[in-house]
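**User:**
My hope is that you can spare some time for a protein that puzzles me. This is the protein in question:
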Amino acid sequence: MAKVEDVKTSLISTRRIIFTPTQDLKDELANTSIQITCYDRNGDVVKRVTSADAGTVEDNDNENTNSESEQGQQGSQSEQGNQGQQGQQTASTYALTISRTGVGSATVTKDGNAVTSGTSLNEDDEVEISITPAEGQVPTATVNGSEIELTEDNGVYSGSFAMPGQASTLIINTGEGEDDDYDPNA
């Protein structure tokens, strides 16, 4: 911002609570495994996975510094004369609502981390989908009404999409159609 007159309420795009955790809290988080349990509509456990990652804890201070640095570099490359403003801007995030129907199971991830309904993502974030439909069923997935191309490998269907620059709805149907009707080359 070059002038105080340029400050407007429209510049406020998101609200966040940011705090710096103590080293004890970071250590506890790093040493805690994460477990995800999937249930079917009868309440029976379908799948259970436990984290096998290194337990690396993101550091908000470094994350903000890196993104500001990258944005500043983009500004200098464009030679628009607004490098300082580029370094101060933050990316807008958009909520992803996820709806699932059918008796199969599905996972939604970004960079290997689970994405749940209501998660805020940046525009163009790559979101991955993995679906294991009920036997004899062919799944479908759409984002904002556009079908996502799914590929099948040993009964597991996968696909991905880039997060649109708006709040979006992902609909996953884990049990639609018969295998005989499905042509992977269509």
In short: Helices lie at 23-30, 60-78, 83-88. The first strand starts at residue 35 and ends at 39.
